[in-house]
Amino acid sequence: LKTTAKALVCAVSIGLAGIAHAADPIVIKFSHVVAEHTPKGQGALLFKKLAEERLPGEVKVEVYPNSSLFGDGKEMEALLMGDVQIIAPSLAKFEHYSKGIQIFDLPFLFDDMAAVDRFQKGPVGQELLSSMEDKGITGLGYWHNGLKQLSANKKLLEPKDARGLKFRVQASAVLEEQFKAVRANPRKMSFAEVYQGLQTGVVNGAENPYSNIYSQKMHEVQKYITESNHGLLDYMVITNTKFWNELPKHVSKELRAIMDEVTVEVNKHAHELNMRDKQSIIDAGKTEILYLTKEQREKWREVMRPVWKKFEAEIGAERIKAAEAANQ
Ligand code: LMR
């Protein structure tokens, strides 16, 4: 009888422990606005996989792609309210939180992704990650998407070709000025609305990396893509500072290590994913990809470059210098 009672107590306590454990994982909602087969979409899924493998029963990561939980107009507020724990907005979406981050939107600032990498890993890039702590936002790392290409229903070869066209822009004053510089009309619009905006003619053109063009089917409603590589679309992965600081130490330490690992992976494969999607766009046969001559590209650079001056005071001249130095 004694043994049975003991076994029973044992079974009950195992049962309770089981229940307590199962009910207990820290739930991390990771919300984003792009498709799953993009660099950010893949990164979010890899983060979930590794976090759940290495902190079994302790952490559960729920990934919400395609603006299915919050669109980009709402995700920052949701993070601050604690309705979502990790988001990775494009660097164009931070102007209300950190003026310095606007640096990443300056047209023709970085020669290539290697320069972007050097800058993000350098002191200024690292400092910007923690520039929003006072607002309750902690930066965990930079994820690449890549360089942006212009698209429209007419051939954009020289800046004058863009005159009068309506371009969709992200919520960024720098990007608005960039299109004003070529006498086009910028229109702020959330990412989820871009396809429809292009389809109905609310806007005539856009700027995106190939992965976003392809996954949103924008190539079906844009006849031409100009491979301009004129600006950057990268992300800062961010979390709610209070949430992060209150995690058990071993959990935040492990999650940070995982995030660093995922960051390396995302940044290693982002270019490849964009090139794959470029090829898919070519294969779909609906859009012609145009390449600029050196002289043509130089013209775009010349007209857009004055935008830097307009934001120099907000961004900081020293930061801009550091970014230029990253081009080597
Ligand atoms: C956009 O709005 O164009 C991008 O920020 C979307 C994204 O997250 O890549």
TrEMBL record:
Cell membrane recorded as keyword: no
Keywords: Signal, Transport
Family membership: Belongs to the bacterial solute-binding protein 7 family.
Organism: Thiopseudomonas acetoxidans
Protein name: C4-dicarboxylate TRAP substrate-binding protein DctP
Protein encoded by which gene: dctP
PANTHER family, per the entry: C4-DICARBOXYLATE-BINDING PROTEIN DCTB, PTHR33376
CDD domains named among the record's database cross-references: PBP2_TRAP_SBP_like_1
InterPro entries named among the record's database cross-references: DctP_fam, TRAP_DctP, TRAP_DctP_sf
Annotated TM spans: none
Signal peptide location: 1-22
